[in-house]
Amino acid sequence: MASVEDRVKEVTARVLKLDSNEIQPQQSFTEDLGAESVQSIELVAMFEEEFGIEMDEEAALSVSNVSDAAEFIAKVCKEQGVEA
Amino acid sequence: MRLILFDRLSDSRKQFYPLALSRPIWELRCGITSLADKLIAKIGSQDVACFVPPYLADVYRERKSWPVNDVASLSNDDLLLVDARVKADSNDFPLDGPSQAICSPTGELLVARVTAGDLNGLATDSLDGLLEAVRDKVTVIEQNVQTWNYTWELVLSNPDQLIADFTECGRSGIEGAVEQPNAIRGNAADVYIAPGVVVHPMVVIDAEHGPVYIDEGAEIHPFTRIEGPCYVGKQSILLGAKCREGNSIGPMCRIGGEVEESIIQGYSNKYHDGFLGHAYVGEWVNLGALTTNSDLKNDYSSVTVCLDGKSSIDTGSTKVGSLIGDHTKTSIGTLFNTGAYVGAMALIAATGKPLPKFIPSFAWFIEGVVTKGFGKRKLYATAEIAMPRRGGEWTAAQLAMWDEIFSMTAPPREEAIKKGRRLLKSQNS
After folding, report:
1. What ipTM was estimated for this complex?
2. Distances (CA, A) of B64 to B3, B55, B116, B157, B370
3. Which architecture does CATH list for B2-149?
4. Mutate which of B347, B348, B370, B374 to disrupt the A interface (most A C-beta within 10 Å)?
């Protein structure tokens, strides 16, 4: 099964129309990957759908890069009893 | 005699959402005045108290000098208790004589007169307790009491109510400044321009088919056409508006574009072009440029409205526009479908297509679906900035009220968010 970080990259690539192989863990969604505010909202929705979780939108939107997003999502999965 | 207005949480109350989410039903407008103004004028009582859903009480106390949810108001005088939905003009009220309760054929207690003497033997420690005791111990009369049942009824009644209210207020003539050249069509006696109003040159006020009342401090910019019947509220500004018949515009609004047979509660902006018809718009709403609502279906069939995100109600009317709750904002180019329900505190980004007929409160409608967006705190922050611009204030009581409304309106919003995620996923696959 793909790691949380790999799945985050796949979702990010789909939403932002990028190649997932070119997405690096430390890249910022907005500054490096070009996510506009509407796409940030879309990313949160797509992460929730991908992992089957509910995230607090303010906490989720405060996460800035891919690696931190993977860590945040893994934590939420654990809290909500969802296998990541 | 003390008039007690009451507005209790019930399924029938939900029929006035999203407008009544943040105010008692009697604060809704129809014609020149609110439903409360009409009840008070009809009953003629100077002594008024009220009972509202608990979550509204603190905010309403900030707005009104009346006792709100104060059980002390249920004693020491004859009482006339009136449900918020009772129509003032269509009913006779028991202003004297013995105690009596008037119930609808379905058993709802809508009006009750209780003498001070009879109050001594009744529970007065809560409104619900008193109404229960009245039903048990006082003569009950079954009567077909005329009530308002849905928000769109106010919109559909607005033109006739404007005419009735203009006659009732008895004002006429020009007390403000009307700069020339200008045109007033129809009977000059059907126009009232209050003190402090400024009507710029090149404005047409057409009272041929109904009266026009422009209230204190309003400003009418050039190339505005106002067709009667119409009411323009205090300090509102019309900016070259095509203001067709049957509009009630509350205080401190900014109105441009085309507006027809609509009610705008107050403090809202529809600055730019775009059509608003047969709509009821709450307070602190901002409609972006070219926001337009449909109020007529292409097949001329009656319009249905969905109030809960599930089932639709046939309005029985071919003309119903949007119901838009307080603090909702729309982007440029937003298109609302016929009979759209747009919740309060929603943020709408246009898609280029007519939007769904039900948009929940606190929805961030982005990319054609309901999302969590940036959450409610971002919406509150916007309200906190917007309100002082028109003399309002975002208070701790408002924060608590909106938090409660956020919880009350969660089920359809959460359902819509889940549906939105599935749609986004399919779009991104």
Report:
1. 0.89
2. 15, 15, 25, 26, 36
3. Alpha-Beta Complex (3.90)
4. B374
